[in-house]
Amino acid sequence: MQNLDTEIIPSTVAQERSSKRKRRTIIAIVVLLVLSVMTMLVQSMIPLMFDLVPWMEQAYYIGVTYGLPLTFLILALALGASIALLMSKTRSYKQRWMQSFRVVYLVLMSIAFLFLVMMQIGISIDTSGSFGKGENYQEIAAFQGDTEDIRMGKFYLNGDLLLERFEDYQIEYNPITGDSTRFELKWISGSEYFIVAPKGHAAADTLFVKITDNQPAYYAFVLSLDRVQGMHGKLDKQP
To answer: Fewer CB atoms inside 10 A, N or C side of the chain?
Structure first.
C-alpha cells in the first residue's frame, strides 16, 4: 500500500507540471499572435509618420509594437501589487498579486488592441485623407492654373502660422513649441517643388510637394518622400 501511494504522488505532481507547461505554452502563443496582429496594424499606420527619416519610422514601429506591451507589463505589475493589498487575505499575497496582475494586464492590452483596431477602421473608411492614407504621387493631377501667389507668403493650419515661404527657402514653425526650422526650396515646375531639411533634422532629407488646387482662401497639395506614395494636405492663406 505504501508503494502505491508513493507512485501516485509523483504521478500527480508530474501531471500538474505538465498542465502548467501547457497553459504557459498557450499563453505564449496567444501573446505572440496578439503581437503579430498589433504589428500589422501599427505597420499600416506608418504613413502617418511619413515625414520621419527611416530610422525614426523603425523606432516608432518597434516602440509601439513591443514597447507598449512591455510598458503595460510593468504598469500591470505595479497596479496588481496595489490591488492585491485590498483583496481578501484567504490566499497568500503572491497568489493575489499574480491574479490581479493577469486581470490588469489583460484589460490594458485589450484597450490597446481595440484602439489600434479602431484606428485601422478609421484609416480604411476615411475618404478625406485626414488619416494620411497614401496615394500614388505620379497619378495625382497637378494644378494647371496660376500659383504665383503661393510662391511666397505666410500660410496657416487651424489658425496657426505653419510656414513662411520665400523665393528659395521656407521657414516652418511648430505652433506647440514655438521652434522654427529653415528648409531650402526649389521649384521643379509651376506646380511642384521640393524642400531639403537641414542636417541633423528629424524630418526626411527631401520632401516633394505637388500643388493640386489653388483657391483665394487656401491651396491644396500632396506630399511625397520618393514621388511614389503621396499624402494630401491643405494650408490656409489667412489665419
So the answer is: N
- Listed in sequence order, the DSSP H helices in the chain are 2-43, 54-62, 68-86, 93-125
Contact partners, residue 234, CB within 8 Å, separation at least 6: 218, 219, 220, 221
Q: Can you list the alpha helix ranges (DSSP code H) found in 63-92?
A: 68-86
**What is the distance, to the nearest Å, from the Cα of residue 79 to the centroid of all Cα atoms in its chain?**
26
- Helix (H) or strand (E) segment spanning residue 182: strand 180-189
Note down pLDDT in tens along the chain; length 239 residues: 445 445 555 666 667 767 777 776 777 677 767 766 666 666 555 544 445 555 666 676 677 767 777 888 888 889 989 998 888 888 888 888 888 888 888 888 788 777 777 766 765 665 444 444 457 888 899 999 999 999 999 999 988 999 999 999 999 998 888 889 899 999 999 999 999 988 766 556 788 999 999 999 999 999 988 888 888 889 999 88
List Cβ neighbours of 112 (8 Å cut-off, separation of 6 or more): 38, 68, 69, 72
The end-to-end CA distance of the chain, in Å, is 92
Say how far apart CA 47 and CA 170 lie, in whole Å. Answer: 24
Is 0.70 topped by the overall pTM? no
Secondary structure (3-state) at 132: coil
Closest by CA position to 234, among listed 219, 215, 216, 217? 219
